[in-house]
Amino acid sequence: MQLGAIITQALRNQGVQELFGIPGDFILPFLQQMQDQTNALPFYYMTHEPAVVYAADAAARAANRPTAVALTYGAGALNGVNAIAQAYEEYVPLVILAGYPSQKEINSGLQIHHQAKSIDSQRAIFSEITCAQVRLDNPDTAIENLQFALQMCRQKSRPVLIEIPRDATNFNLPAMPNQSIELANPPIHENQYRQLTTALTTARRPVILSGIKVRRSGAQRALERLAEQFNIPVVTTLLGRATVSPSHSCYAGVFCGDTQTRASQLLYDADLIIAFGVVYTDSNFSAHRELINAAHFYRIDFPTQSLKAWCARLASEPLPLFETRDISPIAVLPSSNFNADSVVQAMHQQLSQQRALVPLISDVGDCLFASLQASPTDFLAPAYYASMGYSVPAALGVFVATRRRPIILVGDGAFLMTGLELGHCLRYGCKPIVVLLNNHKWDMIAAFAPTLQCTALQQWHYPELAKAMGIESLRAHNAESFSESFAKAWADHDNAYLIDVWLPENSRTKRLSDFAETLTTINKSSVSKV
């Protein structure tokens, strides 16, 4: 069999249903071979490597399974490094199929174009942002290496690198078994389990803190059943926001550092906290280190532990039904100013009347904090690594994986990074609604450095850019005009829309201001005096 046929079959066996990428010289023979398969994976290409990886990342998050990306050697793969690093840190399973020079090219003694310091620099760099790296340069070991990389991708829920030499498409390989790789669950740590069950028998106010790895490991339903069985409130981290349904009877909100929320109050009042699959980030816990270091804080991690097995076994214990606590959100007065919060509130008011599941994709900064004003059941955002420009290309990935119409929350600064990728959405039938929060600057940067002189952005004509891409555009200056614009865009399923929302000066949300103040205060307080 040809290598392209082997890889197509292996990817499909692991649940991969699409291939994202950008054609480049070292990967062209492989792409041609992949395209020629009778069961070829649909290929989605865009303009820039980071955007392609963001799209694949979003498809993997939305479908909770691996997706694949094809990039050329050096210039292509290295251009995607930042986006792949984000996927690594946020536990997104991506299969990176990267080109590599042929043996004849290497033997020539010449430096290869797209080569960095050495012929193996690509692999060395990717060793920092992938959980496995293999090279399919030997027909005797190609299938074994391929299967190992795919197994690591699924087992650790992180990106892997598979390098494909230009001449590897000439291999004649034996047929590969048409079966998926079954992963064995790691055994539960018995001492840790006994300590936790003992603590639960005496606890009166337990709380579950759910992190993103609950979703990545497929433990969502098991965790929800555990919480419901014993009436334990569930709080999520900001990155783990989509791990529990907002309509679940025990759902108590998102803990994002703000102490004036129900989620924060429950955690600080708890006499036992069970943290499932949490990533301990500065954005969530810099100001709350005493909470996560407390003796009653129990950590259960993935992939060293099976979160699903932990939840199922705990649910079988003869534990009491804990008394009901108030888990309703603390009432917050609607913003009197027109800002990102009021935009999302107006949007949520309309979407909450829909029965359909609506994916909401947010970029970082005020978009991310304002998104807490909505309660979506399908939410994506780079809430920890926080790379700007994610949301627009991510919309294509979400559409590819779910066939649902996505809504994008993006600031003008992030839009200028990847906004032109919207033009590719239409080619594939994706017709998103882009809510562009336009405050004419990088306001997230200004929040951390108020006197910095390089955060202002030139006033771009976003409606004209949208028109050039075949996208309808609207403009809003206040809550009323935004509500009207969003209603019009939502009612028109035949077109993609960009709503250019002009925000007034000094319209930054309180959450972003508090977040910036918290981190800068911590950094100032830790400076050593000499």
Automatic annotation (TrEMBL):
Keyword list, A-Z: Pyruvate, Thiamine pyrophosphate
Organism name: Pseudidiomarina woesei
Domain Thiamine pyrophosphate enzyme central: 195-301
Top-level lineage group: Bacteria
Keyword Coiled coil: no
Gene Ontology cellular-component terms listed: acetolactate synthase complex
Family in the record: Belongs to the TPP enzyme family.
Domain Thiamine pyrophosphate enzyme N-terminal TPP-binding, residue spans: 1-115
Annotated Pfam families: TPP_enzyme_C, TPP_enzyme_M, TPP_enzyme_N
Ranges of residues in domain Thiamine pyrophosphate enzyme TPP-binding: 374-501
InterPro entries associated with the record: DHS-like_NAD/FAD-binding_dom, THDP-binding, Thiamin_PyroP_enz_cen_dom, Thiamin_PyroP_enz_TPP-bd_dom, TPP_enz, TPP_enzyme_TPP-bd
GO BP term, pick one: isoleucine biosynthetic process
Molecular function (Gene Ontology), one example: thiamine pyrophosphate binding
Protein name, as recorded: TPP-dependent 2-oxoacid decarboxylase, includes indolepyruvate decarboxylase
Gene3D superfamilies listed in its UniProt record: 3.40.50.970, TPP-binding domain
Taxonomic placement: Bacteria, Pseudomonadati, Pseudomonadota, Gammaproteobacteria, Alteromonadales
